[in-house]
């Protein structure tokens, strides 16, 4: 789904969209870097010097609530945001913290886990940890 479709959907739900909010959405859809709110802020601030960090967080929360992005939280580390809201797997570099998508079919464990645990499963998240090619090169 592109920015225009998402904007139309949100407008139909009564969500007001400023140029700053549109810039945040477009950046999330363009980038593969899984940026932090701070990185998004610096990117948008280059185009809109008056934008506040509060606007970034409010927009990210709104997009998350409406199912247009994934928030990947890492405890003490800052959350990272993914403009692809469809569940998929990630690989995290233990050295530099880079997060990359892993393109493969989801493992269908939800039903099995539900039967085994009695929990009502809402979804699952799986991540792999390792050292990215750039960090591996710099080690040798």
Which descriptors apply to this entry?
140 residues; alpha+beta; Arc Repressor Mutant, subunit A; Dna Ligase, domain 1; two-stranded antiparallel sheet; 5 strands; 44% helix
How would you describe the overall organization of this protein?
With 140 residues, the protein is α+β, with helices and mostly antiparallel strands. The chain has 2 domains: 80 residues, Winged helix-like DNA-binding domain superfamily/Winged helix DNA-binding domain (Arc Repressor Mutant, subunit A); 51 residues, Dna Ligase, domain 1 (2-Layer Sandwich), CATH 3.30.1490. The protein is 44% helix and 17% strand. The protein contains 6 helices and 5 strands; from the N terminus they run H-H-H-H-E-E-E-E-H-E-H. The chain has a 3-stranded mixed β-sheet, with no helix packed on it. A two-stranded antiparallel sheet has the order 1-2. Strand 3 and strand 4 form a beta hairpin. Helix 2 packs across helix 3 and helix 2 crosses helix 4. The longest helix has 13 residues. The protein is globular, with a radius of gyration of 17 Å. The mean pLDDT is 90.
């Amino acid at each position: 789904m592109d920015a225009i479709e998402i904007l139309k959907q949100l407008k139909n739900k009564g969500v007001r969209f400023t140029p700053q909010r549109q810039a945040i959405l477009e950046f999330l859809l363009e980038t593969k870097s899984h940026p932090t709110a701070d990185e998004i802020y610096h990117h948008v601030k280059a185009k809109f010097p008056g934008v506040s960090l509060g606007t970034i967080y409010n927009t990210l929360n709104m997009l998350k609530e409406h199912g247009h992005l994934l928030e990947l939280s890492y405890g003490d580390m800052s959350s990272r945001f993914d403009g692809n809201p469809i569940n998929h797997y990630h690989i995290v570099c233990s050295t530099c913290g880079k997060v990359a998508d892993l393109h493969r079919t989801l493992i269908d464990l939800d039903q099995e886990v539900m039967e085994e645990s009695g929990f009502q499963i809402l979804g699952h998240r799986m991540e792999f940890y390792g050292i990215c090619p750039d960090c591996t090169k710099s080690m040798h």
